[in-house]
Fold:
Amino acid sequence: MIRPPRFFAALVWIAALALALASTAPRAQLTIEIIGGGGTTVPIAIVPFAGEANYPYPLTGIVGADLARSGLFKLIDPAGVNPRPARADDVRFGEWTARGADAVVVGSVTPQADGRVEVRFFLLDAVKQTQLAGFSYVVAPSQFRPTAHKIADIIYEKLTGDAGVFSTRIAYIAKQGPRYELLVAEADGYNAQVIVTSNEPLLSPVWSPDGMRIAYVSLENKKPIIYVQSLATGQRQVLANFRGSNSAPAWAPDGSRLAVTLSRDGGSQLYLINADGSGVQRLMSSAAIDTEANFAPDGKSILFTSDRGGSPQIYRLTLGNGAVERMTFDGSYNVSPRHLPDGKGFVFVRRDGGRFNVAIEDFATRQVQVLTQGTIDESPSVAPNGKLILYASANGGRGILAAVSSDGRVKQRLTAAASDVREPAWGPLPK
Amino acid sequence: MHQSSHRNFRFTLWAGIAIAALLAGCQTTQTTDKAPVEERTPSTGATTPGAGTAGTTGSAVTGTAAGTLGNPLRDPRNVLSKRSVYFDYDSYAVKDEYKPLIEAHAKYLQTTRTARMTIQGNADERGSREYNIALGQRRADTVKRMMLLYGATDTQIETVSFGKEKPKNSGHDEAAWTENRRDDVVYAGE
Structure:
């Protein structure tokens, strides 16, 4: 059964953004490779869609690459199956189970009179011999990449039970010589677009919950100042430029306010500020460093880093009553907390000996699991489905990005030719 | 974009832990701070620019040889030309050796009320970028607080932090880190 193109609006938005940004040449584009995997993978055969060879974008190639990169799928080669099925009814299940495939994807690309293209696809369970999903989209050929990501998202969700994040975008900072760039790319590293260029450091990019704006810190005026920039228009405005340092922006889940760290009243302290820079309000008063705020998904509490206990540790502030509770106890340096999207825990960076690694803590059990094994792993950012954590690492003296699954099993490395990359921020699911 | 599995993953993990243990061992043997020691010239009264004079040029400086250009902030023999205060790892405590320097700048601000300065705090490359911004900020704030005790006024000094973002020494060893845990004093107009 074919359902209506419910994601069409999102596709139009992504395409519009791609066009708006297309004037900037891609630089510091990321290449993603899987460097460690494990656990069970779903064997899946993705049959090239009928008619897709008439277009420059390898639609099913993008779908397959997305799924393989997640580390949760094993691609089964469809070569030699003749004729190639293009509709659910064409699939002879025995052919696929014999190749070891548990799932089969078939589809077609059909030109329309208005120049657009109808993309149809079917996801089938080869073992149970049932259809799991069937969709059709009418899109311009230029929208093949977002369409492929959307198809990969549906397959991922149907087969793993979790939302796919292939249609999301990531932001990161690249340093090339003395030049700093803030870039936004598709989650697979493609279509990297420069959003900001500066000869002074840029850091701490964070996405607004609607994916329309990015807040970041720039040292271009010889001090940390927080800016908010619209991705659609490229226009930016100062969010916080008070006496002293202004840093560590964190969006509230409703996008109306941010938590920031300001030193304007002495010391690094947490404040709330409206997204237009008005209405500054102090959150707490302490004699210690309080910074790196991160809102809980329900907006009712904030995790932050403080050295109020003598060493940097992670604390939770309940906004309703001002109660503060220490969340990390093991080790002398636990920093950079970021909530998991389900609100059940958080990732952070811990120092163990001389190494810095990304770890995950469960709120209910207070159990901590160290997820990474690098020397300098920092700036974790959680995918909106909670399954992957993007972070900054180093390889051969160069900054790279890496990703690890929240169970520690799947590991990816993201490198950009000829530049240091750092400060990753995973964008929200497209609305 | 190929997929591969690492059978040696467990081995690599343990090797990593062993290396980490070695590194941790090494770290405990690191010598303490070998930051350049600033000259300990008694600084009280070293500079006597006329109170209320505008700007930082042309002021009379005692204790310098005749013929020295008039700017005490630039005179290499004047403690006011020393601008950096160095800190230990994860620390914002000001070591005694820097107190004369801090006092000299404070007295200069006290006698040159129009002078304005920024204290820029810095951190070494280890640890969170944002936490290091806060740590550098505290290093700057600490020196500012001392200057206020020595007679400078609040409006004369802005403290900011570059965290680990602008290292003076781009190396990745103890010598570089030592150099990068630092406050720099910069006067307005410099």
Observations:
- Residues 144-160 of chain A form the longest helix (17 residues).
- Chain A touches chain B through 55 residues (CB under 8 Å).
- DSSP finds four helices and 30 strands in chain A.
- Chain A has a mean pLDDT of 91.
